[in-house]
Structures are given as structure tokens and as C-alpha cells.
């Protein structure tokens, strides 16, 4: 996949109105204020973690190796951060990522 294929049209500014974790913690379902529902697995969310331990703050280069994130990773807890983001406690002990709405909208997929 080329770099340009990854660029999506800029989505409108949206806010999630509901975040539901599946009972096994593997999948997060989001409902947005424009009525759209999206979801993502814990693995995808962890792979896209924006924190300073996973992305180099100076070069913006991802230092986390996505292949090291197991498919059976779970989310243990979802915490709202103000009204602009969510933070997750992952089963691998990682808790430092803060996911603003725009990032969550970008990395989750429309629910079938
Ligand atoms: Zn991180």
C-alpha cells in the first residue's frame, strides 16, 4: 500500500457519544454524534497508540513494532479523558495512550 492510499478525506469533527467494550475486552464499539457506529479490536487500537513510548516525539516515527502486538490483546478498562479523548488499559499493561476523537474515528472501521 502506498503512502497516498493511506490518506483519507478529512472527516468532520465528531465526538463519540458511547463507547462499549465487548464482554471479552477484544473489541471496542463506538457510537458517534453523527449517528455513525464504528468498531476496532484492541490489537488495532494498541498498534495505533499515539503515546511517546510508541511514537518518537521528534520524528513522529512509530517505534512500536505492530507485529509485536498479539491478536488476542484485550482492553481491560476504558477511561474518558475530558470530553475530547479516551484512554485504554490494555492487557499488556500499556496505559499511556490518549486517543482523541479524530484519531479514534480514523482508526476504527464502520460497523457492518
Ligand atoms: Zn503507547
TrEMBL record:
<protein>
    <recommendedName>
        <fullName>Gamma-butyrobetaine hydroxylase-like N-terminal domain-containing protein</fullName>
    </recommendedName>
</protein>
<feature type="domain" description="Gamma-butyrobetaine hydroxylase-like N-terminal">
    <location>
        <begin position="20"/>
        <end position="105"/>
    </location>
</feature>
<dbReference type="GO" id="GO:0046872">
    <property type="term" value="F:metal ion binding"/>
</dbReference>
<keyword id="KW-0479">Metal-binding</keyword>
<dbReference type="Pfam" id="PF06155">
    <property type="entry name" value="GBBH-like_N"/>
</dbReference>
<dbReference type="InterPro" id="IPR010376">
    <property type="entry name" value="GBBH-like_N"/>
</dbReference>
<keyword id="KW-0408">Iron</keyword>
<dbReference type="InterPro" id="IPR038492">
    <property type="entry name" value="GBBH-like_N_sf"/>
</dbReference>
Amino acid at each position: 500500500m502506498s503512502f497516498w492510499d493511506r490518506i483519507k478525506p478529512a472527516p468532520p469533527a465528531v465526538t463519540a457519544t458511547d463507547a462499549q467494550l465487548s464482554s471479552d475486552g477484544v473489541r471496542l464499539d463506538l457510537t458517534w454524534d453523527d449517528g455513525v457506529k464504528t468498531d476496532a479490536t484492541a490489537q488495532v487500537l494498541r498498534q495505533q497508540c499515539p503515546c511517546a513510548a510508541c511514537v518518537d516525539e521528534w520524528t513522529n516515527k512509530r517505534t512500536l513494532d505492530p507485529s509485536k502486538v498479539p491478536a488476542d490483546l484485550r482492553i481491560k478498562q476504558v477511561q474518558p479523558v475530558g470530553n475530547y479523548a479516551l484512554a485504554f488499559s490494555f492487557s499488556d499493561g500499556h496505559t499511556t495512550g490518549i486517543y482523541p476523537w479524530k484519531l479514534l474515528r480514523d482508526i476504527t472501521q464502520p460497523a457492518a
